[in-house]
Task: structure prediction
Amino acid sequence: RYQSLAYNRVLEIHKQHLSPVLTAYFSEPLLLHQGHMEWLFDYEGNRYLDFFSGIVTVSVGHCHPKVNAVAQKQLGRLWHTSAVFFHPPIHEYAEKLSALLPEPLKVIFLMNSGSEANDLAMLMARAHSNNTDIISFRGAYHGCSPYTLGLTNVGFHKMELPSGMGCQSTMCPDVFCGPWGGSHCRDSPVQTIRKCSCAPDCCQAKDQYIEQFKDTLSTSVAKSIAGFFAEPIQGVNGVVQYPKGFLKEAFELVRERGGVCIADEVQTGFGRLGSHFWGFQTHGVLPDIVTMAKGIGNGFPMAAVVTTPEIAKSLAKRLLHFNTFGGNPMACAIGSSVLEVIKEENLQENSQEVGTYMLLKFAKLRDEFEIVGDVRGKGLMIGIEMVKDKTSRQPLPREEINQIHQDCKRMGLLIGRGGTFSQTFRIAPSMCINKPEVDFAVEVFRSALIQHKQRQDK
Ligand code: PMP
Result:
């Protein structure tokens, strides 16, 4: 443990010297001292099962021994920029990462954060298409930089300042909250509560959302557009899944108007969804640009943009893109070891097996509790939407959600939150978790729901 400051002193320093935007997730903020694989330890030595891995930042486990060993070795060898020198880790990494992407997605730009990666992807889309307008979904989160804030359509991230020139939002094809139902038309192993009346491959909801998308294209943007950004599953908005086939049709419509299609894999990539290594593959589409961050470095600041040689050339013709720390030797050595661990430890397969096991267990709680409105997701990206009741689907009041969240923490389980009203619990652990840990997590969550019911019944 750190020989460190008392908890109250930490709170004081935080208040005086750190950005007020760094709001703590819990009413009593968690002061962490150590992490090991799927476990976290606070300053008093209390142990927590981390089922949110710092917002999908840690992909293969906190302080994974192999990743740590590689980082330590590189630490003693060279840390520098890649912007003006060659060094082996970046070339080794470029080969490894590009091998995981389909043709023609073979050119890699390395960055330090998801926002930076999406900034660059916006520039690329505009430079390549010679157009300006970019579309993203309502509820999307693509970053917090001035440029990407135009793509991010989560109300509480919007400011009363000019931003997002050329960015337009379109309706999110959310089959749980949206008007057309269709939740059985998403790619999730769980049973859903409102059955869509159409056949699985021809979902009415999908067609309705495509009509909305066409409406945006004909009313809100220029005839020719630069691009369209989509998360394969929305993370910050509460693990929102689109109806099957939606992205494929949307990509065609975008390309007809000269735009490029960008998959933001910051939360969905690197095997987390289980059935496929990349989220876009689960939709059967091939994007023109893929952006990635968070789990790519297992907690080390790192991000990437991967695109086609043609798009990369369009950018190079217009600007010398420069990033001092993007692709630095430390990040690349760590990134390579993360890819090796995912393969050696079969973590994609584990996401599929343990994730499906967990989804089905959580889905049972939906039958047991009126306030569990929807359980969805894929692999180890799971959303549990909390409602006042199943008929109205109104979000459960925030104070009640807060209490359930705190109760889980008190019992040793950390989970995330998402959605406009913070109404969805998000579960996205490191990909190394096992079934007994899932059993523990489901039991803790169930107990928190029982406690909620007891409070309400009083
Ligand atoms: N895209 C997605 C899908 C994200 O979830 C996030 C972060 N929440 C970002 C981009 C931005 O990443 P960063 O915070 O590293 O800038």
User: Anything to note?
Assistant: The chain has a mean pLDDT of 93.
